[in-house]
Amino acid sequence: MDANTFRLYLALGTALLLMMAIFIVVFVAYYQQKQVKQQLALKELQEKYRRELMAATFQGQEQERRRLARDLHDEIGTMLSVTKMSLNQLDRKLTDNVPASLLLQRTRSLLDETMSNVRRISRDLVPTTLDRFGLVAALEELIEKTTDGDIHIQLECNATLDNLTSPMEVMLYRIAQELVNNGIKHARATQITIQLFCQENEVRLSVVDNGHGFDFDDVMKDRDRGLGLRNIESRLSVVDGHVTFDVAPGRGSKIYVQVPLPQSEPEPELV
């Protein structure tokens, strides 16, 4: 075999090896890309399942709240009303027995207080104002029930809240309720401002107080104290929402919530 033939075979062999190397590199790259796509698809399925599970959990909680509120109102509330009627009838028959009449009056006063507490618990479980009149009215009612001589709460909102769905209103109400209760109970706040604004693509809720604040990391480490804040994050994760905690010990807290609004489908063009 002469030198020219040898060089030809050498060139062909080198080209073949180069082609095989390129094929192997391309195959490995394709396989890795396919693996990455499969992993991303799996993560998307897992995330979708997690969100659906969380949504079903919160929906189940709201349904259970409604059931408990209905039982309190329809069954226990009715039984207390009937008991009060019986006491009133008995009181009319004991006009000459002063000690027994006084005892009945005290019992009736305790019964009235119990009935008032049952109605309050029922409204806290499921605020009927939220279903009937919407989020703003429900927040105004929450403020009215919470405000007293030492605590002042104000609401600031715009008028463009028509894009909120019923589940979103429930979620925002629960978040505001949790933050207001935390501000009063744990931060000892005396002034709280709730701001609710709808912009073009999102709704923003903020709760600002003048309390003594808290250490966010320490609270989140405590399974009992951080439960409410973790619930807020879980609720928002279902709808791609986000919460920012601007908090620190010794100063007021500022909590900002952002939730994207559902995009309506474009109406078909008329031809």
TrEMBL record:
Assigned keywords, A-Z: Kinase, Membrane, Transferase, Transmembrane, Transmembrane helix, Two-component regulatory system
Record's keyword annotation contains Transferase: yes
Spans through the membrane: 6-31
Entry-linked Pfam families: HATPase_c, HisKA_3
Residues covered by the Histidine kinase domain: 67-263
Entry keyword Coiled coil: no
Alphabetical list of PANTHER family matching this protein: NITRATE/NITRITE SENSOR PROTEIN NARX-RELATED (PTHR24421)
Protein name: Histidine kinase domain-containing protein
Species for this entry: Nibrella saemangeumensis
Upper lineage: Bacteria, Pseudomonadati, Bacteroidota, Cytophagia, Cytophagales
